[in-house]
Design a protein that fits this description.
The complex is a heterodimer.
Chain A lengths: L18 H20 L6 E5 L2 E6 L4 H10 L7 E9 L12 E9 L4 E9 L5 E3 L8 H12 L2 E3 L41
Parallel strand pairs in A: 2-5, 6-7
Antiparallel strand pairs in A: 1-2, 3-4, 4-5
Chain B lengths: L2 H4 L13 H10 L4 E5 L3 H9 L22 E5 L7 H10 L5 E5 H6 L20 E3 L6 H15 L17
Parallel strand pairs in B: 1-2, 2-3, 3-4
Helix pairs in contact in B: 2-6, 3-6
Classes of the chains: A alpha/beta, B alpha/beta.
């Protein structure tokens, strides 16, 4: 072992000291302002959460907002990355008016930007207009959400289950559905041996 | 067993006597035609078992058939879910008699770690199983051991149902 002092490990530049980070933040701010401007009246809030741009919208405005995001010549969010949903039932601040949140993630291939649209749905009426009219690829993703959460997509061309069998009665990713199911997995006829 | 023991003067004359059943069982056990019902990672180990390194053909069971009508050994290797269970039952029923079933790995035997709504908690609830192979996934040696146990069942050294389902002691 040598007594030579090891050189100090070179730390990566911190967020604050990195010269590029301020530029990124400025750009972000410009992006947010642009989105607020373009989506005026169609969204209630535009913010950054976990380094992702989040647009809060509602059932009546979500499709109009998606259309703007897709067709606006400056925004150009031309690809639907994913649609997913969240059941907020087990949250401490749960209210039946915000039982489900449907999340559309759209991406601009040209600008390399990504935004997320969040739409809250109530427990009594989990319905949202389909995004398939704007993004064709949304149709199958919405079937999967219907399969797992029972959220209905109004105007969907073919709203059937995708993963579970058609006879299935429940929506298993809802938080009030038990993990082990309600006996569906034990409900088969035994194939007996022929003696 | 045979005539040569009853008549000592016939011993060592270049022939032996036996029963037709035993000859048929001997032929069957050394030419098993497996149907691979591979639905998950256990199927990868099953493929490894069939490859040259482990070489299941040393035990006469290398002729994998993808038609249940041509096979007599069903190897259920992997998870079976709600949608797959009717398919598995139909495949089992399409196999001609006599037939044997290996439940390979934790998932096929007990559901494994997947104690969830679509996962069948052991295929033996719905089809008869002769041999259970533990492991997640089992090593190829375990599958070979399972095939050898099937051979024992075929030639009468072991009873059907002798190899019982693994149980988990409740804490």
């Amino acid at each position: 072992m040598s007594d030579e002092k090891k050189p100090e490990p070179k730390l990566p530049p911190t967020h604050d000291s990195h010269p590029a980070s301020t530029r990124v933040l400025e750009e972000n701010q410009n992006d947010l302002d642009q989105l607020r401007d373009k989506l005026a009246g169609r969204c209630s809030d535009v913010s950054v959460q976990f380094k992702q741009t989040v647009i809060k919208t509602d059932r009546d405005n979500v499709i109009a907002a998606l259309e703007i995001l897709k067709s606006d010549p400056e925004l150009k969010f031309n690809m639907i990355t994913d649609i997913t949903a969240v059941d907020n039932m087990r949250r401490p601040d749960f209210e039946p008016e915000r039982r489900f949140t449907v999340i559309h993630t759209v991406y601009s291939v040209e600008r390399r930007k990504r935004v997320r649209l969040e739409t809250d749905l109530s427990e009594g009426n989990p319905r949202i207009p389909t995004a398939a009219a704007v993004y064709k690829g949304a149709a199958w993703i919405e079937r999967e959400i219907y399969d797992m959460y029972g959220i209905e997509f109004a105007g969907h061309p073919d709203l059937r289950r995708v993963l579970l069998p058609d006879y299935y009665e429940h929506f298993p990713l809802r938080k009030d559905y038990p993990l082990t199911g309600r006996g569906e997995r034990d409900n088969f006829v035994r194939a007996e041996e022929v003696e | 067993m045979g005539l040569e023991q009853m008549i000592p003067s016939l011993a060592g004359e270049g022939f032996f006597t036996t029963q037709v059943n035993k000859v048929i069982a001997w032929a069957r056990k050394n030419s098993l035609w497996p149907y691979p019902f591979g639905t998950a990672c256990c199927a990868i180990e099953m493929m490894a078992t069939l490859n040259s390194r482990y070489d299941l053909s040393r035990f006469g069971a290398e002729v994998i058939r993808f038609s249940p009508r041509q096979s007599d050994l069903l190897i259920v290797s992997g998870r079976v879910v709600l949608k797959m269970m009717p398919v598995l039952a139909e495949i089992y029923q399409q196999m001609g008699e006599p037939k044997w079933v290996i439940s390979m790995g934790a998932c096929a035997s007990t559901g494994g770690v997947f104690n969830t709504y679509p996962q069948i908690q052991g295929v033996d609830q719905f089809i008869p199983v002769d041999v259970y192979i533990p492991g997640c996934p089992p090593r190829p040696e375990s599958l070979i051991d399972g095939v050898l146990k099937i051979q024992k069942i075929i030639d009468g050294q072991a009873e059907r149902g002798e190899f019982t389902r693994p149980t988990v002691e409740a804490n």
